[in-house]
Design a protein that fits this description.
Nucleotidyltransferase, domain 5; five-stranded mixed beta sheet; alpha/beta
């Protein structure tokens, strides 16, 4: 039986914080109706779905790559690396459960360098249940990290914009300079 591992990332666009990726394999009896593209769901709906995904998935994993490495290898490579790590962890968990036949479906048009059969699916996070589930885990994981960062560096307002480029975020960088989780090679951070 070919088990589908869906993978997606969250946080390629922000000026601060890690990029997150998740990989998820789902059973046939999963309540698929709770899934959607994470960007189209409310925060509460994502958090409810996250609990059910973690409870009922055949296997799941979340990986992140921090700002320093993003600055070294660029954001696309960092996102693909996080996807590769999470897919590898899910494949290992599935093998432990006796599954041997996998296929990775990755959101977008760039293939993560996984040692498994892989296809890309453009807009996969609105078409493929496993990718939807991965997008939810990546987004909730990253949002949680940014809420913790907001407590360490309250002057940046991370709890509001989660590190994305907003007028208030640019103003805070202008006023306080970058903090340790800012991506120093990103436009809007490096010029300040």
């Amino acid at each position: 039986m070919n088990v589908i591992i869906g993978t997606d990332e969250a946080g390629r666009g922000p000026l601060a914080g890690p990029v997150y990726a998740a990989a998820v394999a789902l059973p046939d009896d999963f309540p698929f109706e709770i899934l959607n593209d994470s960007k189209k769901m409310t925060e509460k709906a994502r958090e409810r779905a996250e609990i059910i995904i973690k409870e009922k998935a055949l296997a799941w994993a979340v990986a992140s790559i921090g700002p320093e490495e993003i600055d070294k290898i660029n954001i696309l490579n960092a996102a693909l690396k996080a996807m590769t790590i999470s897919c590898g962890e899910v494949a290992a968990k599935l093998r432990e459960k006796g599954y041997t036949d996998f296929k990775v479906l990755a959101d977008g048009n760039r293939m993560p360098p996984v040692d498994l059969p892989c296809e890309t699916v453009v807009k996969g996070d609105s078409k493929i249940h496993q990718i939807m589930a991965a997008s939810i885990l990546a987004k909730t994981g990253r949002d949680r990290y940014m809420l913790e960062a907001a407590q360490k560096w309250p002057q940046y307002g991370f709890e509001k914009h989660k590190g994305y480029p907003t007028a208030s975020h640019y103003r805070a960088i202008e006023e306080y300079g970058p903090c340790p989780i800012h991506r120093l090679t990103f436009k809007g951070v490096c010029q300040r």
